[in-house]
Design brief:
Strand order of the largest sheet of chain A: 4-5-10-6-7
Number of helices of chain B: 6
Order of helices and strands of chain B: EEEHEEEHHHHH
CATH topology of the largest domain in chain B: DNA polymerase, domain 1
Strand content of chain A: 25-35%
Radius of gyration of chain A: 19 Å
Number of helices of chain A: 11
Helix content of chain B: 25-40%
Oligomer: heterodimer
Structural class of chain A: alpha+beta
CATH superfamily of one domain in chain A: CO dehydrogenase flavoprotein, C-terminal domain
Shape of chain A: globular
Distance between the termini of chain A: 56 Å
Distance between the termini of chain B: 57 Å
Chain lengths: 279, 183
């Protein structure tokens, strides 16, 4: 398996990358860590005319703390973020989910923004972004905009990004007081694509559950604080509404059951977590 | 900003196992093929070519990475290590390689180069890595011969030796017990 021929531009600055995207439009693909794009190229599922490499752009290499959030630019590798001191305090959900992303060997190269751009419906990084109500920061040569994560993912590997836009950064809201977080996933083996992944965010008024691997995009739903059979009913309704499909890895019925079981587990863990950090 | 044309070949320079190296490649050439065909270093194996099997793993700037998911033009200026760099001199094995031999941590050998490079890079970064951590590292590789237990035993023993500890100490005893349990 070899990629079809393409030209290659190694951008040294954001302007160079944005100029290249403006010039080549849908003929171009951005490459950062390459851990999602290279398999697509090798299998010739995509045949861009030009790759724009953004990994040498110094301005995109460092996470930037903002008030109530961590902004993670396009050049930040997953392994670098996972090693960031204080990640488990600031972004407990991401700290729990990142070890499930591929393997040590792929996290060493892969970036967070790259996973968001790829928009695999079972991927953990987009799931956490949706669960935490984060944002995707898009930039083209003459405009920039922020898109809510829930609006950004529009289908199976389809996003709001226009052809001339670069995902400059993703913005993950950091831990809020009195809020708890939990993540769980079921896959065939650790490092495989998730059959179902669940992320929960719970505070004193609301429970939020985000599910990956079932619908064509990571999907979240907010519930009031529920228990017992009311919670079972709510989870069951959510599981059915996600429209689970059947494939080689799992039946639709198994996926719905995982949504109910994992959903209950992460909501309960997140609720415990929220009580702990309130006291 | 370098702009490389699709059809043409371009010179890429990097450090390979401590020495300067260069190779001429098309932009689409994978690092696996640049190493094997361009430089004749066939120790890096090619398995699935989409990042799953781990056979092609090399160290790029000190971290383990899939060579099949890396463009050769992307490693300009990088520091690469491949399995050819592990032995201290011809005819002698490195610490990790010798441990693999002692523990029968390979049979057909197809996956071995990748696993050695993952463990070599990882133990440099985290010399105190224990069983759980190393299990996860090795989990990034497919091995259909060994069942993994001897690979972990070899990794734990090599880690102890590299830390300057007595290789018959607790870490290795744990490794040997695991092997017995497996056998």
């Amino acid at each position: 398996m070899k990629p079809a021929p393409f030209g290659y531009l190694r951008a040294d600055s954001l302007d160079q990358a944005l100029d290249a995207l403006a010039r080549h439009g849908d003929e171009a693909r951005v490459v950062a860590g390459g851990q999602s794009l290279l398999p697509m190229l090798n299998m010739r599922l995509t045949k861009p005319a030009v790759l724009v490499d953004v990994m040498r752009i110094q301005a995109l290499r460092e996470p930037v703390p903002e008030r109530g959030a961590l902004v993670i630019p396009a050049g930040v590798r997953q392994a670098i973020l996972l090693d960031r001191p204080g990640l488990a305090d600031d972004l407990p959900l991401l700290a729990a989910a990142l070890p499930w992303v591929g393997h040590v060997q792929t996290r060493a190269r892969g970036t967070l923004c790259g996973s968001v751009a790829h928009a695999d419906p079972s991927a953990e990084i987009p799931l956490c972004l949706v669960a935490l109500e984060g944002e995707v920061r898009l930039r083209a040569r003459k405009r920039r905009r922020s898109v809510r994560a829930e609006d950004f993912f529009t289908g199976m590997m389809v996003t709001e990004r226009a052809d001339d836009e670069l995902i400059e950064a993703v913005r993950y809201p950091t831990r809020a007081a009195g809020t708890g977080y939990a993540f769980a996933e079921v896959g065939r083996r650790h490092g495989d694509f998730a059959i179902v992944a669940c992320a929960a965010v719970v505070d004193a008024r609301r429970m939020r559950l985000a599910v990956g691997g079932v619908a064509d995009r990571p999907t979240a739903r907010d519930f009031p604080l529920l228990d017992g059979s009311a919670l079972d009913d709510a989870l069951n309704a959510f599981a059915w509404d996600l429209g689970a499909g059947e494939d080689l890895h799992a039946t639709a019925r198994y996926r719905r059951d995982l949504v109910r079981q994992l959903g209950r587990r992460v909501l309960s863990e997140a609720r415990q977590d929220s009580l702990r950090c309130r006291s | 900003m370098p702009q490389l044309d699709a059809g043409a070949r371009h010179r890429v320079r990097f450090t390979l196992n401590g020495a300067p190296a260069e190779v001429e490649v098309e932009p689409r050439t994978l690092l696996t093929d640049a190493l094997r065909h361009g430089l004749g270093l066939t120790g890096t194996h090619v398995g699935c070519e989409h990042g799953v099997c781990g056979a092609c793993t090399v160290a790029i700037d000190g971290v383990p990475a899939r060579a099949c998911l890396t463009l050769a033009v992307g490693v300009e200026g990088c520091d690469l290590r491949t399995v050819e760099g592990l032995a201290p001199e011809p005819g002698r094995l490195g610490v990790l390689q010798a441990a693999f031999r002692r523990h029968h941590a390979l049979q057909c050998g197809f996956c071995t180069a990748g696993i050695l490079m993952s463990l070599d890079a990882y133990l440099r970064l985290r010399p105190r890595a224990g069983r759980a951590e190393l299990t996860e590292v090795v989990g990034g590789h497919l091995c259909r011969c060994t069942g993994y237990a001897p690979i972990l035993a070899a990794a734990l023993e090599a880690a102890a030796i590299l830390r300057g500890e007595d290789p018959s100490g607790p870490a290795t005893r744990e490794a040997t017990d695991a092997e017995k349990a497996h056998a």
